[in-house]
Design goal:
The structure is a single chain. The chain has about 260 residues and is α/β, with parallel strands linked by helices. The chain contains ten helices and ten strands. An eight-stranded mixed β-sheet has the order 2-1-3-8-5-9-7-6, with helices on both faces. A two-stranded antiparallel sheet has the order 4-10. Helix 4 (about 80-100) packs across helix 6. The longest helix is centred in the middle third of the chain and has 20 residues, at about 80-100.
Length: about 260
């Protein structure tokens, strides 16, 4: 016991301090994803706190909470997929877990990312370069009309896109004040999480993104937990019922442009 204690003490002495806590969203049945993230964590010396996510695929629709189904359909032109509901609730849980644990900022990741030894340093450098940011998306699928606001000392461009949504919330840095605003604003689901969290103009929050992804995706990303293309197609409303969604997106497009051009 004594030698084990000394070993643990030595390891903690030489292990560099982690600059920010990392919260990992993972559902119970995604054991392969958890094992892969744990392997990466052990290899890179990155510690994370698991968030026991909501498995929307196993939860009957009549047990969903804090959802505005009609508003979602008007805004998005289709019904909510179970995986989208689980994703939305899980990210809210992660933000609330961070708020309950204290600290001024955190990084939240999904369990299909491929971590890099430098990703936390790059995340912190991005925040230093954009001190007013409430949230910085560190992974995106699209960068249409990206406007550079600043660059970090790690070489990453930070800014906003004139066109969106950018897609993905696989990895982002969020401040305490940002998490508080987002949890309050997005308490009721009426859009997919990755769409809703970009809408800084609606939440009165400062949302930025990096121009390149600071983490990649593991091979397990292909086994999606949200939905396949056929699921999205099947969930779509008829053409005439999607008219309100087209109007909403058009109005949001102009709001996004105003936000990008005028907000610090």
């Amino acid at each position: 016991m004594c030698s084990m204690s000394l070993t643990a003490l030595a390891e903690s002495h030489f292990m560099p301090a982690q600059p920010v806590p990392v919260y990992l969203i993972n559902i119970d049945r995604a054991t392969d994803r958890l094992a892969e993230i744990q392997r990466q964590s052990d290899e890179l010396g990155i510690r994370f706190e698991r968030v026991d996510g909501v498995d929307g695929g196993l939860l009957p629709r009549d047990q969903w909470v804090d959802v505005d189904h009609l508003r979602f359909q008007r805004r998005h032109g289709r019904i909510i997929l179970p995986g989208e509901y689980g994703c939305y609730r899980s990210h809210l849980m992660a933000l609330r877990q961070f708020l309950a644990n204290g600290g001024e900022m955190a990084v939240i990741i999904e369990d299909d990312v491929a971590l890099d030894a430098d990703f936390l340093a790059r995340a912190m450098a991005a925040k230093k370069a954009a001190p007013t940011a409430d949230l910085i998306k560190l992974v995106n699928h699209r960068w249409g009309g990206f406007r550079v606001a600043t660059r970090s000392d790690k070489g990453d461009a930070i800014g906003r896109c004139l066109f969106g949504p950018q897609g993905s919330t696989a990895c982002y840095l969020v401040t305490r004040s940002g998490a508080q605003k987002i949890v309050k604003s997005l308490a009721i689901m009426s859009l997919p999480w990755d769409v809703a969290v970009e809408r800084g103009w609606d939440m009165q929050t400062s949302i930025f993104s990096t121009r390149t992804n600071i983490v990649g995706f593991s091979r397990l990303q292909k086994s999606t937990m949200i939905g396949w293309r056929r699921d999205y197609r099947a969930a779509k409303s008829s053409a005439w019922r999607r008219v309100p969604a087209h109007l909403f997106r058009t109005w949001d497009f102009f709001r996004r442009i105003a936000y990008v051009l005028t907000t610090q």
